[in-house]
Amino acid sequence: MMHKKVMLWTGAGQIGMAIARRMGYGMKIVVGDKRLENAEAIAKIMNEAGYDVEPAAMDLSSRDSILKLIEKARGYGDITMLVNGAGVSPSQAPIETILKVDLYGTAVLLEEVGQVIAEGGTGVTISSQSGHRMPQLTPEEDEQLAISPTEALLDLPLLQPEKIADTLHAYQLAKRCNEKRVMGEAVKWGRRGARINSISPGIIVTPLALDEFNGPRGDFYKNMFAQCPAGRPGTADEVANVAELLMSDKGAFITGADFLIDGGSTASYFYGPLKPQNQEK
């Protein structure tokens, strides 16, 4: 078997595919998803376009499942790229699942890949504008999210059920943790000569976003992109534009950073028509 550079890609969705198409040519791409049929369907699309994609089942909430996916990927060669697009949204899952998948699972994935990533390797994890909406945490809480041992994360006081208002709040906490975790992991990845960053998209048209449009907060989300400076939702390829910068040599000095790509929704949320007080008038 030919020894290739390997891209490990989790979450067989539109954003992950846009990044994989941009960065994964000539590589072996191993894509893991909770639903194997999703991974198989997206692998078929890409293989028919000339890529070399192997689908696999993977549960981001399980360290054992993550380790098996990493082992499978390393069977083809050195992992040089990580693209993490796996996760659940506030309308798709209860609080406990959001924390177990989006928060804990992402932290475990970054930790485990960081221990085997090749020198010169790069990674991006897809976070969310939601992490930027929440009030600031204390410096101590931020540090806990950034560097607590992964198995202790869900025991942190700020992540206990009585402290979490609803699924949106859980999602915001998970995404804030993603950003802080990337900072903490960037220090460790740097010792291997590798880089890791996060991207926080706003409303990007994907099946997950369509679930939100049709969910209980659908009108809120439609209003969000109508009232943001860009005046529209974004596309997966626009997220891939940022990933291409971060994962290429042009991003060689960028690590431990989070890139907000939301058409200005967060700016409008704090200082424009999307400000909660303005919405109530």
Describe the structure.
- The chain has 281 residues and is of the alpha/beta class.
- Helices cover 47% and strands 15% of the residues.
- It has 12 helices and 7 strands.
- It has helices at residues 14-23, 36-47, 63-74, 95-114, 130-133, 139-147, 167-191, 207-213, 218-227, 236-247, 265-271, 276-280; strands spanning 4-10, 28-33, 52-57, 77-84, 122-126, 195-201, 258-261.
Label this structure with key terms.
281 residues; alpha/beta; Rossmann fold; 7-stranded parallel sheet; 12 helices; 7 strands
In short:
With 281 residues, the chain is α/β, with parallel strands linked by helices.
Topology:
Layout: E1 4-10, H1 14-23, E2 28-33, H2 36-47, E3 52-57, H3 63-74, E4 77-84, H4 95-114, E5 122-126, H5 130-133, H6 139-147, H7 167-191, E6 195-201, H8 207-213, H9 218-227, H10 236-247, E7 258-261, H11 265-271, H12 276-280
